[in-house]
Each structure stands twice: as structure tokens, then as C-alpha cells.
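Input chain follows. Return C-alpha cells only.
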Amino acid sequence: MSGPQASWTILATLRWTTDYFRTKGVSEPRAAAEVLLAHTLSVSRLDLYLRYDQPLNPEELARFKALMVRRREGEPVAYLTGHREFWSLDIRVTPAVLIPRPETETLVAAALEAGRFYEEKELRRGGQGEDPPKTSPLWGLEVGVGSGAVVIALAKELPRMSWVGLDTSGAALAVARDNARRHGVADRVHFLQADLLAALKPAAAFALLVANLPYVPRAEWERLPREIKAFEPPGALLGGEDGLDLIRPLIRQAHQYVKGGGWVLLEVGDQQAPQVAALVEETGAYNRIETIKDFSGMERVVRARRREAAG
């Protein structure tokens, strides 16, 4: 970027950067330019076009150029800005956590449907004519919270439910706790550092158990673009040879923690849903097992309903 300062208006900067990113093979060059420039100027992306003829001062140009160079080298936009939108929530992210993906909103939507179904069942069970009906406190559990995006979205949408969030990474839990505070749900989401379910005693305590565990098979991991492999935490993505190294043991244990009529929901990768559903069925603990497609038509979530106790 060179030339007289006055020539570097917002619009000129956007156009130049978009072309530059395109020649360097940067994905979504226009969007990347907009997000980074809006972040630099502390304005919205819409404001960029409302102020298109506003010139950038030398300090703004220098800060923007530094971000532009890092993006050219592959660093994800979300790490450069420290934020990612998920379920219409502003989620803070750092290199300690996986960047929330749009397809994971399928897991949230599927869990909300199941959670609301369970709440209605509990209200009916509470009896007629009571105001309000007497029901047990409802708890949900997320295994592998990362940034906290999923559990926070669920806590916002299901205000009657409290949550436990587990993760092996202390750095990730620090980010999740901060996001929970920022979104006003810290009093209903309790985070614990744990390897899968090891921190909890087996007890049918939860109405929902959700998990977006690492599921990328090793062969697929080797083919991922550099901006993922070099910058995002491998432990949040790599799921072993077949991608199920953590999902398999979770399935073996999950039913011990879920109430009768409660639900287990697992996000899975491409072509993994049939195998995961079969593993769930092998436990004999569920009377309804289904797969749910994401916006691209891929089977993204396996959802299973826990059998009710006899009698």
C-alpha cells in the first residue's frame, strides 16, 4: 500500500485489499477486507460504505496493513479480530479455542428442539391446576465446550435450564467463562476442567447432553488448508484415525448421565453419522435415534432419546 495518504479512503482501501487478497489466494477476499478494516476503525461493516470517502490516517493504515499481512500468511480473520458471530451472538475467540463454525448451529437448533420438548413434558408431568407446576430443576451438559459458543447459545434460549460445561483445556475454559459473563449466563453455566465425563459421578442428572468433540480423521486432517492446520488447536479437531477416538468412549458412557426421556446430541463429520448412530444403538439405552442434516444437506447431528425407566 503506497501513495499519498488522501488517496487511501475507506473505499479505495477496500478495493485494493480485496484485489491483493485475491491474487494471494486468500479465501473470501472481500469479506476479509471488510471485517479487518471495520475492526481497525472500530466501526460496523455497514459504516464502511456509509463513510466510503473517509480517508485513513497513518496510524489506521499501519494497523490495517499489519492485520492484512497476517491474513495473507493464513491467520484466520476471527483470531485477528478476536471475535466470531455464532447464533447471532458475539463470541470472543483466541488461538486456544476452535473458531465456531456455521454448521455447528445445526447442533444448537437440534438441542433446542429436544430441550423444549423435554421442558413441555416436565410441565405436563408437574400436574394440572398448579401455578406454577412443580418440576425438578433442569440441567444440561456440554462435553468439550471450547469457546462456550454452544452452551451459551443454549443457555440464552433455554432460560429454565442450568448447565455444566466440560473441557480438557484450562485456556479454553477461561475463554468460555469470559463469554458466559459477557452474555449474562455465568450464573447458569458451570465450567469444569475434565477429560470427557471423568469429573462427574455417573447419575441420571441431565435432560440434555450435547457434544461437538474432535471428529476429523487423520487422513482428512492432512488435507486441511494451512489456515486451519497451522493456527487452530489440533486437539479440538483431530479425532484419530477414523475421527471417533473421543466420540466412541463418550457414547459408551453418556446414557449413565441422562435422565429417562432426555436426549444425547453429537455433532459428527462427513459420512460419520451412520457409524455413530450404530454405536448409539448398540448401547440399548435409547428408543429413538435420528440424524439431522445441516444447511448443506450433510448429516451433521446424531440425536438419541434416552429410554424411560420401566414402570
